[in-house]
Amino acid sequence: MKDIIEGFLKFHSDAYPKRADLFKNLATKQNPRTLFISCSDSRLVPELVTQHEPGGLFVIRNAGNIVPSYGPEPGGVSASVEYAVTALKVTDVVICGHSDCGAMTAIANCSCMDHMPAVGSWLRYADSARVVNEARDHGSDSERVASMVRENVIAQIENIKTHPSIRLALRENRLALHGWVYDIESGDIDALDGATNEFVSLATHTEVRAYPLAPLAVAV
Q1: Which long-range contacts (C-beta less than 8 Å, at least 24 apart) are formed by 44-53?
Q2: To 5 degrees, how large is the angle CA 198–CA 108–CA 197?
């Protein structure tokens, strides 16, 4: 804990004064344009990867970057999605998986979750990705996990589309969905091309999106 406190003291003495005006503006309002849903893994820091300052992203983090399908008992993820889209009116939603994901590794390897029942129950929201991944042939364990990471991003894109706030925003052409996979070692990101259902390099395909597939219509 000592290093956490020392980090705060350094922030308070060095980083905060350099951003005093920014924090003053953020004290009573926020206007993020992107909802970023990522894994809780300590190696993936959305603000670092996207180079955004405080106030730039509305972030949801959980084990496996999962978005449960909308249901009669919405939880914290559903509430946060609804708030971001309805109240904050974000224009983009990114669901970002990553390499060497512990949650996806457990699913891909059919690891027993009896000792972590809450985790096991939570990961059931990735069942559709698991079924698809298990139906494929994989050359190695690492390929199986990497494929599971990607299938999960695709599955969570489909899950989030069941949320009423998302469906309305998509229908009104004021929201785009993006599926990303971040590679920890290289720093690269592959993005889901919804037109082909394939992942391509974001560095060379900066306009790619998971949904909608075509450029947003311009009102006349």
Answers
A1: 44/96, 44/98, 44/182, 44/184, 46/96, 49/182, 49/187, 49/189, 53/19, 53/22
A2: 10
* Contact yes or no for 65/153 (Cβ under 8 A): yes
In the predicted structure, residue 220 carries a pLDDT above the cut 80: no
CATH number for the region 31-201 comes to 3.40.1050.10
In this predicted model, what pLDDT tens digit does every residue of 14-62 receive, in sequence order? Answer: 999 999 999 999 999 999 999 999 999 999 999 999 999 999 999 999 9
Domain positions in the chain are 1-28, 31-201
- AA identity, residue 23: F
What residues contact residue 23 under an 8 Å CB cut-off, 6+ apart? Answer: 16, 54
* Cβ proximity of 38 and 96 under 8 Å: yes
Q: Which two tokens stand for residue 11?
A: 């922030």
pLDDT, tens digit (0-9, with 9 covering 90-100), for 128-159: 999 999 999 999 999 999 999 999 999 999 99
